[in-house]
Write a structure and sequence with these properties.
homodimer; 7-stranded mixed beta sheet; 3-stranded antiparallel beta sheet; DNA-binding
DNA sequence: CCAAAAGTGTTACCTATACACCCATGA
DNA sequence: TCATGGGTGTATAGGTAACACTTTTGG
């Protein structure tokens, strides 16, 4: 969506002329990462946005995106897009939805194929920010350009939905993690607290994780054991296409 | 996808030229309905396909589809598409996935936004067939044009997935139905038999159905009570966007 | 020794499943 | 009256949620 104004026919305003043109095709991404909250210090969901430097919606924040590069598949285009804006490689990347309402953009008609991504929290700290790229808390966003508020809401809904099942939480953590950290991910995303005892048991039973010999040092209390995720991601439990064409 | 060959630039074969053109945007639909099996008579899943009358894949069967009409939203375009080929109105219509691999079509690059639909079985019997439009059993399809076999497989996977939760089964039945008919839908889609006693209880507890005063006559045995579905569809339990932009 | 998180055990409850059983109807 | 699907009851197993309890560390 960002960069759409550089596409052909973008300056056409007349309605009848506009309807005769083919719709433009864009790729956007909703990128989630965990960052410590300013006040509580607990991990919370954040996402990077890009400030628009042209009309329409000049000066407003928008999802990173751009036109579909000819040589890329949809997935590759989304990954490239993500690398360009944040400099990060996603640990998880999946198609969210194709948005194609008639009046999403005031100038030309645009169909946006939106992907959503998760980034490891260890990497997310290195993500570059600038005047035009900043991270925001996923809840309580200001008004965004185009229909991007709706898109973020939908991405959040999908994330929460997947979290209830799948082994998606590990994509927000580093290679090694404590079980309490996994629980914090769930609590941050689903926005409710969970019983540590039961949570631990359900994890060790269902998810494919293996204990390491290491323990996380530096805490105030008993050092917790570190675990490693061993699940093959191709075994998608729910919500993912069998193959990603 | 069908009808793609009528789009501009379709005859361009040279690779470098081809890469400079914008990808074409198409809408296709996977339409499911229940029809009695030839041998057992039990309801099974069928879908309508269209015979291609031009290259590429001339003579092969393909999903109904066509280019995105300018004046339609994605959803409207899918619905129109469905009406054009089968003459039916869907009782359920949802976006499936956007397929955008580089080599899906041998001529021009095509990005297809695919929808999937359910049609009431009472209506499905009226669906028109012709030389170029026929219904096939959803399992054991022959080789289809383009990547349409994969698309159908994915649509089946999504249908089964939704069936496990949601109140989607009713969209394959008429307004009034017996509980055994609902069970037959589940058995046909999930391809396994279920305990009638337990199934009935779970339905009456979870799903929003209300008993009518009518009973289905004409059977060989005790006439079963007819029920009616009362669930609001906006209360989507899983797998549906909160709003469909 | 104390506080607090890590980690284990125990119990009540809820729901899926299996299956025995009665009911109502057509033939 | 018999066969058959409609419909109800009930016992059992497995899993979740709540919470008491033990363990291990830093201060």
């Amino acid at each position: 969506m960002q960069g759409m104004d550089r596409m052909p026919f973008a300056s056409v305003a007349n309605v009848s002329e506009r309807m005769a043109l083919p719709p433009a095709l864009a790729i956007s991404t909703v990128i989630f990462a965990l960052r410590p909250s300013e006040k509580s210090g607990r991990p919370t969901l954040w996402l990077p946005l890009v400030k628009r430097i042209r009309e329409p919606f000049k000066g407003m924040w928008a999802l990173p995106g751009g036109p579909l590069t000819q040589a890329d598949s949809l997935l590759d285009a989304a990954a490239r897009n993500l690398a360009d804006t944040t400099g990060l490689a996603p640990s998880y990347l999946e198609q969210l939805y194709a948005f194609g309402g008639l009046h999403r953009s005031p100038s030309q008609r645009v169909v946006s194929i939106v992907y959503w991504a998760l980034v490891q929290s260890t990497e997310a700290e290195l993500a570059r920010e600038s005047e035009n790229v900043q991270w925001f808390r996923a809840d309580g966003l200001a008004e965004l350009a185009f229909d991007h508020n709706e898109i973020v809401e939908y991405a959040l809904w999908r994330l929460r939905n997947k979290m209830e099942y799948g082994s998606i939480a590990y994509h927000l953590l580093g290679e090694k993690f404590t079980l309490a950290q996994v629980r914090e991910v769930y609590e941050a995303v689903l926005n409710r607290s969970m019983d540590p005892a039961n949570f631990r048991r359900q994890l060790k039973q269902a998810a494919r994780i293996e204990p390491t010999d290491e323990f996380l040092q530096g805490g105030k209390h008993r050092p917790p054991r570190l675990y490693r995720y061993t699940g093959n991601d191709d075994a998608a439990p729910s919500g993912t296409p069998p193959s990603r064409p």
